[in-house]
């Protein structure tokens, strides 16, 4: 029987704690490298009768320190919003996901407090898997050697995992996925992720401009610092029925109609409109058509959208849905 997923915003309350097999990381994208880590956690948990568990952070520690030091350019872009990350972790059969708020208190936690309060007391860790260069605690003072010493005292086993590489020997990492998305290389991103890049969210009301132009859209807010390059994409929309729907989508700030827009994902369904406000949909990115452009007027924008829709139909005619 499949274990029900338990999601915690900090350590579980005492009555809900069970001995666990744990891995720790940000897991942005939950790519093939992460999937290899999670598979080892599952195996160890199964062999030892433990709960397969993940400890992750929000925001990314690098994002926290970039903000703290007023250097926003040092914050990593995001492959996944929190919902998509949690869904991807859940799909790897984790029984327990703990999201720790990475704030001043957490950043100032000593390495020993991290081990004793979080790993031992809060999570009842019995088996731990981390990267070979894993660092933790105030000023990154803790390392794998300290974990192993603590494990001998507190009764947990520590394993490490080297970088995961693809069949060509290239490292699979969140940085590699971000690089692929930044240049619009969806094939490379899909190879690294093990699935198409996707964004999910609830459909919100927009300015209704697309409807006025004859191309109504489903609008999603996008997490800040989205890793994907702004542009026009062929996409597949899930969540509006049993089958996915073919669509063309614009990811960006809509420079023709707004001066200071926030990033939106606007998807125009190619097979007819849908009443989708408030629904949770998932948009899979299949092919990049072009970069985002600023057009001189609305007729030019309308003509470009019509071309994009035609090119998307041509893509589906060749590749299918």
Automatic annotation (TrEMBL):
UniProt key word Transferase: yes
An example molecular function term from Gene Ontology annotations: riboflavin kinase activity
Entry EC number(s): 2.7.1.26, 2.7.7.2
Pathway(s) served: Cofactor biosynthesis; FMN biosynthesis; FMN from riboflavin (ATP route): step 1/1; Cofactor biosynthesis; FAD biosynthesis; FAD from FMN: step 1/1
InterPro entries: FAD_synthase, Riboflavin_kinase, Riboflavin_kinase_bac, Riboflavin_kinase_bac/euk, Riboflavin_kinase_dom_sf, Rossmann-like_a/b/a_fold
Transmembrane segment boundaries: none
Keyword terms, alphabetized: ATP-binding, FAD, Flavoprotein, FMN, Kinase, Multifunctional enzyme, Nucleotide-binding, Nucleotidyltransferase, Transferase
Keyword Flavoprotein listed: yes
Gene Ontology BP, a term: FMN biosynthetic process
Root EC class: transferase
Segment forming the signal sequence: none
UniProt catalytic activity: riboflavin + ATP = FMN + ADP + H(+); FMN + ATP + H(+) = FAD + diphosphate
Annotated ranges, domain Riboflavin kinase: 192-317
PANTHER family assigned to the protein according to its UniProt record, in alphabetical order: RIBOFLAVIN KINASE, RIBOFLAVIN KINASE/FMN ADENYLYLTRANSFERASE
Family, similarity comment: Belongs to the ribF family.
Biological function: Catalyzes the phosphorylation of riboflavin to FMN followed by the adenylation of FMN to FAD.
Annotated protein name in UniProt: Riboflavin biosynthesis protein
Protein source organism: Bordetella genomosp. 4
